[in-house]
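Reply to dn_fold:

You asked what the input looked like. This is it:
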Amino acid sequence: MQINISNLSEGVYSYDLVEKATNLGFDDQFDEIVAAHVTLEKSINQLLLTVKASVKGVFVCDRCADEFDENVETSFTTVYSWENDDVTEDDDDFHVLSHDQNIIDVSDSVRDYLLLAVPAKHLCGKRTCEIPKQSVVEKETVDPRWEKLKELIKPDRN
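and this is what came back:
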């Protein structure tokens, strides 16, 4: 998922990028296609990228153990700036470009943000899988050996 930034004038650009999930390092759990919509805003000193990415995954429900498909979506913003004396540090969402660099690769960021968007608890959402809102409370049976202790409790006298 690369964007050629050479010869871009200042302004807003839109890109729709598609890549195979295996090329981005996803396992067989995810569908073949990772889609990303990138909005690039170029100014004199920097590039601001707003990315919306999605991939379909096959998960196993944590309650009923049935397999189900779920679309994993994420969005993030990242900044690319050209190197100068003030800016030399790379960050997760801030990247420094050399002056001769013409290509921006957003593959690693898309993969990382999509993996972070995968829910920790997978629920299929089927009605048969839901926990009932009211639980059935069975009448407690008391061990007969403890029945005599109830006689020790005296009713409150107010």
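The two ends are 78 Å apart (CA to CA).
Hope that clears it up.
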